[in-house]
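Q: Could you predict the 3D structure of DUF995 domain-containing protein?
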Amino acid sequence: MMSSIRFSIAGAAFSVLLLTGAAGAAPGTEADIAVQKMALAAAPMSAAALEQLYGGRTWRWNDGGGYFSTKKHRFTAVTRKGTARSFATGRWFATDGGKLCMKAYWSNAGGGSGAITCFLHREQDGVVYQKPNLGGQWYVFRHNPVQKDDEARKLLRGDRIRQGR
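A: Sure. Here are the predicted structure tokens for DUF995 domain-containing protein:
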């Protein structure tokens, strides 16, 4: 029972890593390889740029979302799988090396566990590239100009977690 609870909480904590199908896939097509090369040629984003991109916004995920408060860098999140819900509270931080991290305690009806999830960001000419800090491949997070399927369009102003939207 305890291992299934831990698995459930860990699954919720790492749902952030499953934001796009391409994020964890090995580059296979010429387009994928080109994105990897362009991302590596781009400059890491500054902490200030990441704070401007994420601060005061909710990142909507397929199964929930996380809010990046500008007040003391608080982070809150919720995920839903069927009737099961997991909640997270913690902090987020950004570095001048392009890293954005969420350090949170995730809990559900069966217990809780801490997790740190980080993403790397690079930018060139208004195009933002992102990848999970551990593994995964670079993908275009935001095109220039922004396209309708960009992951960055899921960054919504305000606290949609507390509002329940």
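Q: Anything worth pointing out?
A: Residues 103 and 116 are 4 Å apart (CA to CA).
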